[in-house]
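U., I forgot to send this yesterday:
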Amino acid sequence: MQESSISLHLIFIDSNYSVFLQDCLYHHQVHKISFIAQDLTDTRAFGYIFGSPDTGHRFFGIKTEKSASQVVMSMRDLFQVVFDLKKKEIERAKQQLEMQQKFLATRAAETATRVNILASCSLG
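Result:
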């Protein structure tokens, strides 16, 4: 009997309903899961594709005792949360970059003004 556990960053599949890491058969980082689907002919089965272009991709098929729809929906919700968090992180990084660019532009303008003042003083 296998149980799955879903967290914000990892998906755990263990063998004895245990939360101990040594019993974990697989743990998959959410950002490396590229596709999830429920079996159309057996509601207890679902699967997902895990991997990256560098390491290759593997399909993980899982069959549960009861309907897998709750697990599939939870994973889809998790993907949406991770996507939204990543989007916010990118937006914050863009804002920080814009602030740094404005600061550097202001400093460059101040420096140019000082250089012009010094140059006009030495010519005069």
